[in-house]
Amino acid sequence: MAQAAAPSVPSPPAPPSLMLAGRWRPGLPLADYWVSEKYDGVRGFWDGHRLVTRGGQVVNAPAWFTAGWPALPMDGELWAGRRAFEHAQATVTRQAPDDRAWRRMRLMVFDLPEHPGRFDERLPALQAAVQAADNPVLQAVAQRKLGTDAELQALLRDTVRGGGEGLMLHRGDSLYRAGRGDDLLKLKPFDDAEARVVGHLPGKGKYAGRLGALLVETPEGKRFRIGSGLTDAQRDHPPPVGSWITYRYRGVHEATGLPRFATFLRVRADEPRFQATR
Fold it and tell me: Which positions are catalytic?
């Protein structure tokens, strides 16, 4: 008797092709850029019919959350407010949507990936699409022009002081192109990056019998330890091997290219497959 064929398992959706942010550098022509707040949430891509993360995972949002959204792709950040990243991540990654948790969420839209125009043209089209949707959880990111670097630095200080993460700068003359370049830039008071956990190193002294440091690997294959920034609970139950984490650092060592003063920031539970951060 012929064996019944095993049921096919659908392959996970491919990650969307998104524009990625570089880092703002002094000397770039500030007048060419629109400036907005960098929202500390989970990258959310609306393909016109469903929400997915930057890694391609389907986001199980309640039906009321996406009601009335336009049938055109939108790039944005699923955000719960300042200093609320953990709430946003837990809400977005939950398989069964928690209606109460989603009431704190919104999609802050900052681009239209399939619009053929330059950002100067995409911006009014984005604002019109959000307004037509008439759903308060769908919001267009406020953009502004600044005249001087002193104004830019003052806005950065005010944003961070108020609990924001930093600023984004979007070149007005740019088309939407997937990948990294100078069309989209971020400005924060510290550097950060992502790495994959490849090992748990035992602690010594007061950390004996617990995690001492994470052994991590960058997307380029460089390995280093991160022992700072971990809570007692994280030392008892460390991020699993294979998970991706975000860490902060202060420049890199000239000889090795490894980050200086790397400090653990958080686990990226929304990103099982690596893709560089916005």
Answer: 38
